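Morning, I've got a small favour to ask if you have a moment. I've been staring at a protein lately and its backbone has me curious. You're getting the sequence in one-letter code plus the fold written as tokens. I've dropped the whole record in just underneath, so have a look:
=====
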Amino acid sequence: MSRLLLVTVGGSPDPILHAVRSHQPDRVVFVVSASPCGAPSLEQVIGDGHPCRRRLADGSDEELPNLLTLLSLGAFDPDQDLVKLPDPDDLLDAYRRIRSFCRQLRTNGQRAELIGDYSGGTKTMSAALALALLEQEADLTAVSGRRDNLVRIDQSDGVRAIALGSLRAGRVLQERLTLFLDDHRYDRAAQALGEFLRSQNDELDDVAYAAGERLLGLLEACVLWDRFQWREALSHAERVGMEAALPELFAWWQRVMTARRWLDGNQPEVDVTGYELVQDLLLNAERRGRRGWFDDAIARLYRALELLAQTYTQLELGCDHRENGQGKGLRDRFRWLRDHEGDAGLGGISSRQWPRFRQLLDSRNESLLGHGLTPVSGSVWQSLQDRIRNLVDDTMDELEIIPGPPPQQLPAKALLALPLAEELFRSY
């Protein structure tokens, strides 16, 4: 495989000469400032006469021919081996042009070991080259040497490799977490973060590592909650400080747990409506629907509607929802409510809206998680998600129940905006 070296070109030829001679590439590509830039470094590469200057020990300048001559690059192609930057201080433009060059190499099927050296050029050119090569998973170096000023290195004495592994790992992790959290895949996000902390243990300082562990703890709590392990999730959330990091979500979880205990006959110790468990199950169904798991979402909606009937029977009618006379299926429970209440309460509401909920029963029964082989479509799921949420709201309105704080969906990418996430990724 051939070796291709990209170098940023500035005022001094020595770092570039040293980088090329150290790496011995098969091809050199120069990243240069060009017209309309007022001081184009392109002249250092192809200019006539003696465009390069070397600072001598006595403070005078030695005039030298261009870099092509100094490096004896007879195979140079100005159309292929120059990346021209009209504004060497425009980071975004410089990054895009260098990235475009790198991608074009791949598009053309050119297999080459890609190396970059950012010793020359403006700070912006160096940053753009580093960003582009980070994306390409290429190697990066810088020429080291003695400095007598802040303008340039006048005497080069070595090429120093720049460690990109940690930077690359941090960037990949951020991309993976964004993707996983967009779909509420807390298990995959926790796995990715855990692997990162183990692999980068020696690279992270104590503050960043501690922030990563706290973020991992929050993800693990969300995994437990997403799997209906409410008690374990709440206990884990207390240990990892969710109350401070996500106070509204933590308070919602406490309300859901209180509603869960109330359904078992234990009087609530905090002010809740009792329907929080139903509302949280709707949130769970919504997360499945967002992932495209429509059959799974419909199964949860079916259970939420059944749980609504159980909760209403227990809290509003004072009847134990586990009594055998109420039946165990969804139809049986709502038929019992209609027989018991007539046109009033949830029995009346469900009777008036029942034709629309028949679609839920049919979709669930015909789905792969029911008794059939017909997948549920996204439009059917979304329609039923909205209808059941409205039914819960209508029931609470008719009973004049004060809803309290709104239900809290598990956070998605908002987790990455938390201060602890910013602390973890501050170096990336």
